[in-house]
Specification:
Layout: H1 25-32, H2 36-53, E1 56-60, E2 65-69, E3 77-80, H3 81-106, H4 110-113, H5 119-123, E4 145-152, E5 158-164, H6 171-184, H7 187-191, E6 193-194, H8 200-211, E7 221-224, H9 233-243, E8 246-248, E9 253-256, E10 259-262, E11 269-270, E12 273-276, H10 280-283, H11 299-304, E13 309-311, H12 322-326, H13 328-336, E14 343-344, E15 348-349, H14 353-361, E16 366-370, E17 380-381, H15 387-399, E18 404-408, E19 414-419, E20 422-431, E21 433-436, E22 440-442, E23 447-451, E24 465-468, E25 470-474
Parallel strand pairs: 3-25, 5-14, 7-8, 7-12, 12-13
Antiparallel strand pairs: 1-2, 4-5, 4-21, 6-25, 9-10, 10-11, 15-18, 16-17, 16-18, 19-20, 20-23, 21-22, 23-24
Helix pairs in contact: 2-6, 3-13
């Protein structure tokens, strides 16, 4: 740690002067006390634990699907509790506004009448479901489980980078990271005031209970998975097991008298709530994509009749659109009459001519993203792109401006990462998870994804990224 430097970026543990940042000094001193042999042994133990627990993720290639061990770095990311309190309030505020927005769009459409958001960008979204119009789920909550991607910029400010509302993933890896860390370095959790995250599955269970649209004393709830070949199947299985509820595929459910039942040896059991891990399109071949073989025919009708709860609600996905993201400060002010507690990255809308011209002229400085994209795919990072790639994206923007947004390149914060025998800075982002129901719950920290390659800002595990435990520490 004495040789560790990260002067070109905001490092979350060590300042440019080489001192531990306020609120995380205890962890910095603990790291300094570890020698090379201890760290090497700890890293080997972590990989052994990951192997034994079967923590994996799937990488899709053109030829096959490959299961890989979860890439984990044993040096934790550390955030002070005082910093996190402000972030947590901002995340809760954002979800209140998003749920109000989605419900308004499918019902009164007041935000369009008041010309805060153009209705065309919503209705042209591939994730807007006309079938949901005129319907509100219980408590008018559409996104019960949300993953909001955050970064810290060069100043150390937390910024919202992206909203994930339809089927957010990654929470199981957040929990497993903590399990591995507690095995490898249990002294961290006995010596220091690290905020717990283990109550997430209990909170999720009660969030599902709360989403049931009718009274029942003995609820039956399930996790609906596309199957073992889905890249997040490990997570589906993990969460079902932790909550003590059934993991099912579409073929395990059927509809009778507009109610949902699960097949069992003893006959059908009524299902009261479904945590679905299928995208909207595949949920019900009668209501949406007729070719879906993994959905449940008649499920959407049962849902609209109030005979089953579904998390997250069908129709939520249009609010993931990065064009909607660009309007979020206005959406928060409109529904809550509050200033946003969390800032976000400046965003240029390519469907607006003045902003589009600015993007085209400055494309070498921009990060260009598909408005409806996810997973880091289809992105062009202007400062690192070749001239030919920039020209291709300029052409794409001009051909389909509604489908692209652009942002100035934000330099992601760094944290010490073990590279051989050395600590080296690596860029990272953070995905906290928010549960919305009768109460709002924000995880203490979240899933930290880290770019393991030197100089890279690509944190996705499918593209060479890794992960860390995230410690929210109170001094």
């Amino acid at each position: 740690m004495r040789l560790y430097k990260s002067k070109k970026h905001f490092d979350e543990l060590i300042s440019q002067e080489g001192r531990a940042r306020k609120g995380v000094g205890n962890i910095a001193r603990w790291l300094r006390s570890k020698d090379t042999e201890e760290l090497s042994t700890a890293s080997e133990l972590a990989q052994l634990a990951i192997r034994q627990m079967g923590i994996s993720f799937t990488v899709y290639s053109e030829e096959t699907n490959i299961d890989r061990e979860w890439p984990f770095d044993i040096i934790p990311r550390t955030i002070s509790a005082s910093d996190w309190r402000n972030v947590s309030k901002g995340l809760a505020q954002r979800l209140r506004a998003l749920n109000s927005f989605i419900d308004d769009v499918y019902n009164k459409k007041k935000i369009f009448k008041d010309k805060i958001v153009p209705e065309s960008i919503v209705f042209k979204s591939k994730n807007y479901l006309k079938q949901c119009e005129g319907f509100s789920p219980k408590r008018k909550i559409w996104s019960h489980i949300s993953g909001i991607d955050l970064i810290r910029n060069i100043k150390g400010d937390f910024l919202v980078l992206e909203d994930n509302l339809q089927v957010p993933s990654g929470v199981s890896y957040m929990l497993e990271n903590r399990m591995v860390m507690s095995q490898v370095f249990p002294q961290i959790f006995t010596r220091y005031r690290v905020s717990p995250i283990g109550q997430y599955c209990n909170r999720l269970y009660h969030c599902m209970e709360d989403a049931i649209p009718y009274q029942t004393k003995n609820p039956h709830m399930v996790v609906l998975t596309p199957g073992i070949y889905n890249s997040a199947y490990f997570e589906h299985s993990f969460l079902a097991q932790q909550m003590g509820i059934a993991l099912v595929e579409g073929k395990d459910l059927y509809i009778e008298n507009d109610k949902v039942y699960m097949k069992t040896i003893g006959g059908g059991i009524r299902v009261d709530c479904i945590y679905r891990r299928l995208n909207d399109t595949f949920l019900d071949p009668k209501a949406f994509f007729k070719g879906s073989l993994i959905g449940v025919p008649g499920l959407f009708k049962a849902y609209r009749k109030g005979n089953v709860g579904i998390l997250n609600a069908p129709g939520t996905g249009f609010a993931d659109d990065k064009l909607i993201y660009s309007y979020m400060p206005d959406i928060i002010k409109y529904y809550l009459d509050e200033e946003p507690k969390l800032k976000q990255v400046e965003t240029f809308r390519c469907f607006e001519k003045i902003q589009r011209d600015h993007v085209i002229e400055n494309i070498g400085k921009m990060v260009v993203k598909p408005a409806d994209g996810s997973g880091g795919y289809g992105i062009m990072i202007g400062p690192k792109a070749k001239v030919q790639e920039r020209e291709v994206f300029q052409k794409r923007i001009l051909e389909n401006p509604r489908n692209y947004i652009a942002q100035p390149l934000e330099v992601l914060s760094t944290t010490p990462t073990l590279q051989g025998d050395l600590f080296e800075p690596r860029h990272q982002d953070l995905r906290p998870f928010i549960l919305s129901g009768k109460d709002t719950y924000v995880t203490m920290g979240g899933l930290t994804r880290v770019a393991l390659k030197k100089g890279s800002t690509i944190v996705n595990s499918s593209r060479g990224g890794g992960s860390k435990d995230t410690l929210v520490v109170d001094i």
